[in-house]
């Protein structure tokens, strides 16, 4: 898995691209419309973010149809895994158990989330 660091602004672009159900990618205009209506970024800003994501290998641009169409190279799961690994490494000295302990001790987990964590741990135990 490629390790790619994606900024908060770039995450918004990635989310818009991941929300696209078409396999032909999205134009710049479609990305602008897909972003949250409270987002006040200009086309130029969004284009700059796309160029950065392309240089990082997270997004691809295709111009075979005469207009640039952008699509993700990395899946949402890959990007989340990269972010979690980076966060756990930086904040919890690369200790996932300290991270889980902090989540559990915080007390903001509802019953459903607790069951999901237990289910995941049980699956790991079976392996």
Describe the 3D structure.
By secondary structure, the chain is mainly alpha-helical. The protein has two domains: 8-72, Winged helix-like DNA-binding domain superfamily/Winged helix DNA-binding domain (Arc Repressor Mutant, subunit A, Orthogonal Bundle); 93-127, no CATH class. It has helices spanning 8-18, 28-34, 43-56, 76-91, 96-106, 111-126, and strands spanning 59-62, 69-72. Strands 1-2 form a two-stranded antiparallel ribbon.
Spatial order of strands in the largest sheet: 1-2
Helix count?
Answer: 6
Structurally, the number of domains stands at: 2
CATH architecture of the largest domain: Orthogonal Bundle
Beta-strand proportion = 5-15%
> Can you count the beta strands?
2
Rg: 18 Å
Give the termini distance in whole angstroms: 22 Å
Mean pLDDT, nearest integer?
A: 91
Could you say what the CATH topology of the largest domain is called?
Arc Repressor Mutant, subunit A
Helical fraction: 55-70%
Q: H/E series, N to C? A: HHHEEHHH
Briefly, what CATH class of the largest domain? Mainly Alpha
Which spans of ≥5 residues are poorly predicted at pLDDT below 50?
none
């Amino acid at each position: 898995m490629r390790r790619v660091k994606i900024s908060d602004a770039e995450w918004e672009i990635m989310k818009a691209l991941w929300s696209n159900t078409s396999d032909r990618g999205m134009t710049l205009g479609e990305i602008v419309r897909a972003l949250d209506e409270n987002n006040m970024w200009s086309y130029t800003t969004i284009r700059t973010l796309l160029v950065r994501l392309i240089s990082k290998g997270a997004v691809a641009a295709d111009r075979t149809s005469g207009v640039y169409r952008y699509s993700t190279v990395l899946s949402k799961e890959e990007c989340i895994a990269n972010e979690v690994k980076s966060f756990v490494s930086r904040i919890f000295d690369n200790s996932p158990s300290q991270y889980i302990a902090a989540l559990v001790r915080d007390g903001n987990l509802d019953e459903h989330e607790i069951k999901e964590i237990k289910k995941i741990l049980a699956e790991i135990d079976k392996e």
